[in-house]
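pls ignore typos typing on phone
S-adenosylmethionine + seq
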Amino acid sequence: MNDPRHRSAARARLAAEGAQTEARAREPVAGTRPIRSFVLRAGRMGSGQVRALAELGPRFVLPFQNTPLDPAAVFGRSAPLVLEIGFGMGDATAQIAAARPDTDFIGCEVHAPGVGALLQRIDERGLANLRIVQHDAVEVLEHMIAPASLAGIHVFFPDPWHKKKHHKRRLIQPAFVARLVTRLAPGGTLHCATDWQPYAEQMLAVLGAEPGLVNTANAYAPKPDYRPLTKFEQRGLRLGHGVWDLVFARR
Ligand SMILES: C[S@@+](CC[C@H](N)C(=O)[O-])C[C@H]1O[C@@H](n2cnc3c(N)ncnc32)[C@H](O)[C@@H]1O
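k done
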């Protein structure tokens, strides 16, 4: 029993069992797999994006964590904080952050090339008021954002999930909107935009029915000046789609 060969074989067996247990713990339990609002695509990263991730990621990409962020520690100051969900390639995000230096921004995106692209914009513009979390925004909101801490939330051109069987993947649904409201400070705004009319109608119905929100417009809002045209919006406009903005405030 005390033979060192037996001890090392036993250690190897325990390690293998431990690894299997850990792998099983990460597997979704049948029927409980969360419905995600995105599908991770294996997008190709440009060499500039790869370099930006390696060189700028450590400074501007915040790792996902299970505890609320301290924005004052992250940004080194106390300022209104805006969360953007799904920034895509981040062009609009960088433009907004550059135009509003008195506000701090956290952008969430799961698509790595987009993260690399926004890091490049951060570098070009020398932005100090923007950080990125490369993780599911639903989990970021739940764990990293303290209640009543946001001055604003931007959800610009979320995936419309056109097919009826995929509508459950849309972000703007009653339960998630109720979670968003808990993170807004009173008076804080939730700004959504879409170029897909059926989704715009869903947004108007869902946001209008949320008791914690009040519409700042009669129905759809005029495009606020701070929102530049995004890449997806330009494509939608070229395809002849309309664009609908919705700006609701927390009561
Ligand atoms: C249709 S694109 C729009 C991108 C950008 N807002 C624009 O207007 O150009 C939607 C983006 O949201 C991201 N996304 C969807 N669900 C997400 C989630 N739960 N967390 C983080 N990003 C998400 C997708 O990866 C995608 O890049």
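The radius of gyration is 21 Å. Residues 60-250 form a domain with the Rossmann fold fold (CATH 3.40.50.150). more later
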